[in-house]
Amino acid sequence: MKRREGRAVTDRWDVAVVGGGIVGLATARSLLLQRPGLRVTILERAPGLAGAQTGHNSGVIHSGAYYRPGSAKARLCLEGRRRLIEYLEAKGLEYRIPGKLIVAGRPDQAARLRVLAERASANGVEGARWRSAEEIRSLEPEIRGVAALEIPGAGIVNYAAVAHSYARDVEDLGGTIRTGTPVLRASNTGAGIEIEHAGGALSARVLVGCAGIEADRLARSCGTDPAVQIVPFRGEYYTLRDPDRWGLSHLIYPVPDPTVPFLGVHLTLTLHRGIEAGPNAVLALGRAAYRRHEISVRDLAELALAPGSWALARRWGRTGIYEALRSLSRSVYARDLRTMVPAITDADLLPGGAGIRAQAVDRAGRLVDDFVLIDAPHALHVLNAPSPAATAALALADTIRDRLLHRRDLAL
Ligand SMILES: Cc1cc2nc3c(=O)[nH]c(=O)nc-3n(C[C@H](O)[C@H](O)[C@H](O)COP(=O)(O)OP(=O)(O)OC[C@H]3O[C@@H](n4cnc5c(N)ncnc54)[C@H](O)[C@@H]3O)c2cc1C
Fold first, then answer.
1. Same structural domain for residues 271 and 348?
2. Range(s) of the domain holding residue 31
3. How far is residue 51 from each of residues 81, 93, 171, 307, measured CA to CA in Å?
């Protein structure tokens, strides 16, 4: 990086966290709790915090049933869920634990559900229970299936509110937060890292990249090969008309497709008595393409040129075409939901919001399943923190912190 007008950077920090989503905020908090007095600053490009994935998700406190035993997702989801609930209790933040039913609509799905039940047990998820078709009906009169897995520990929360609470903790612990401050580039000086941002420049002993949808670009701008490309997958929601009519007391999920790291279109209770249906997973035509017609030529060109993109197109092809069709057609969306909720019609689905998942894709075109952290000189980049990273944030943050504190080059 060229220093502006050749002047030395006087704005100095121990740690600069890039990204004011739930992972960046939890990481700064964790560092400050462990090392009081550490000089930590957070740089967020948007005018407010938690406006990207953290503010556009389903708000589910996942219980850890889905993830491959031994994976970081499995371990950190369980630990993060426990810590999150303790935190919510301590701070008096609103949440509920209605539990969920993962519903098999057909016998072949019941076989896949058995595998999921084994995973839940291997991961130490408490209270998971197999339910028959009759039991499903008595638990949820509007839901049909040949079998279901009941997970009593699944909950709901507002993750944007949780992230804002982490931000207050950061400031109370002496950290600073700058919004409206996009990081433009960074360079390693040998002794640390210099960061050019929209408001000037600063130096830090270490940069922690928690930039979600921009994570790969941030790593590259710091001179690090991220080895993955971040691909945006939009998740679109509908809101159910007349939510009380369905009498739902659980979150209702389908059996997920084991070939993709998304959970399938589900019904989520909201904190204020609403019901959301979604999200689907549509390849978005831009990293900020919250709406269908939005396109970024730069993002598309980069995607087309990235190694792995064509392999991704081949792998994702059929599923992708179906997802795009379902995105365009409320009838197809409603038809899919009817496999679990037979009474649902198109008219019950009112347009809702959308979120954009930052999904890492490797050079072979595979959607990377687990969380990915990579170390670089004077930097650590979080390159894949998809769901359940909001649930897992407190535990993921401690993992990042420990990794930073144990690195000799940082000596924090
Ligand atoms: C549709 C959807 C549903 C989901 N449902 C759930 C769920 O129910 N439960 C769950 O646990 N998880 C869920 N997730 C996943 C969860 O939301 C994410 O894993 C989590 O929010 C990731 O947090 P983050 O801080 O890494 O990313 P983000 O929240 O995306 O934050 C990254 C931040 O970095 C900022 N940034 C980017 N580039 C720069 C730059 N150059 N300079 C400065 N700032 C920058 C962005 O503006 C953004 O604020 C869902 C995600 C989506 C999209």
1. yes
2. 9-94+155-227+363-412
3. 22, 19, 19, 29
Same-domain check for residues 272 and 341: yes
For residue 277 and ligand 1, the question of a CB distance below 6 A is answered with: no
Do residues 281 and 163 share a domain? no
Is ligand 1 within 6 A of the CB of residue 385? Answer: yes
Residue type, 356: I
Residue 411 corresponds to which amino acid?
A: A
Instruction: Choose one of 134, 152, 170: the last residue of a domain.
Output: 152
The answer to whether the CB of 24 is under 6 A from ligand 1 is: yes
Q: Compute the residue count for the chain.
A: 412
- Contacts of residue 61, defined as CB under 8 A and 6 or more positions apart, other chains included, come to 81, 84, 85, 95, 97, 154, 155, 156, 157, 391
What's the CA gap between 147 and 144, in Å, rounded? 9
Regarding whether 272 and 135 lie in a shared domain, the answer is no
Alpha carbons 170 and 75: distance in angstroms, whole number: 25
- Is 3 a residue whose pLDDT tops 80? no
Kindly report the three-state secondary structure assignment for every residue of 15-79: EEEECCCHHHHHHHHHHHHHCCCCCEEEECCCCCCCCCHHHCCCCEECCCCCCCCCCHHHHHHHH
Question: Which residue, 385, 406, 410, 388, is CA-closest to 23?
Answer: 385
Question: What are the residues whose beta carbons fall under 8 Å from the beta carbon of 285, sequence distance 6 or more?
Answer: 294, 295, 296, 299, 300
Residue nearest atom 37 in ligand 1 by C-alpha distance: 211
Quick: pLDDT tens for 258-301.
877 788 889 999 999 899 999 999 999 999 999 988 999 999 99
Task: Report whether 46 contacts 356 (CB < 8 A).
Answer: no
The alpha carbon of 208 and the centre of ligand 1 are apart by a number of angstroms equal to: 15
Phi/psi of residue 90, each to 5°?
A: -65, -35
The reported pLDDT for the residue numbered 2 is 44
**Cβ(261) – ligand 1 distance below 6 Å:** no
